[in-house]
Amino acid sequence: SGMSDGPDVRERLHGIFRPVVTNYAAVTGDIAPIPFRENLRRWADTPIDGIVLFGSNGEGALLDEDEKRRLTAFAREVLPGGFVLIAGTGGESTSAVIRQTRAMAAEGAEVMLVHPPAYFGPYLSPAALLDHFRAACTAIANKVRQGQVRSELSDLIGGGTLSFDLQPGHP
Q1: How far apart (Å, rounded) are the C-alpha atoms in residues 114 and 118?
Q2: What is the pTM assigned to this prediction?
Q3: Residue 108 contacts residue 2 (beta carbons within 8 Å)
Q4: Residue 68 pLDDT > 70
């Protein structure tokens, strides 16, 4: 799978994590796997500790779930096992967040940046957002290889901060 058999991902979450842009074919507008892989190979030879897919630089909001899944798999295939692979996920519903996050984990992403709902997010109270993320994280933590899910939200909820840790089976 390309995943490291070494230290737990939490022990490797330090250093430089390069945001990755998504390459598109000029004529069709489809994702372009060859230049995407070439960029990753070049960056793997630089002093970085991991990459971030589908963050604000990675066009995550413009990609469908299948494109994200495919790009995550391409990245895991290309990157050395010790590189941390972080993927941005999200959705308008808790079930969409769970489905997408599980798919990214299955393709080799070790850490997820779960974005709040874009459409309803501004209308949700901090308590409702906490319920959304807690439900998603609990479902994910019970299915994903890593034993702990940590969530932190800050300016996306109007300046407040929500932070919580979840262990599998412990909401």
Answers
A1: 11
A2: 0.78
A3: yes
A4: yes
Q: Judge whether 88 and 115 are in contact, CB under 8 Å.
A: yes
Location of structure tokens 């949700």: 124
CA dist., res. 165 & res. 150, Å (int): 5
Residue 78 to residues 33, 39, 113, 146, 164, Cα–Cα distance (Å): 11, 10, 21, 22, 33
Q: By C-alpha distance, which of 78, 85, 68, 89 is closest to 35? A: 78
Q: Amino acid identity, residue 99?
A: R
pLDDT in tens, 16-43: 999 999 999 999 999 999 999 999 999 9
d(C-alpha 31, C-alpha 44), whole Å: 21
Tokens 């439900």 belong to residue? 135
Average pLDDT, the chain: 79
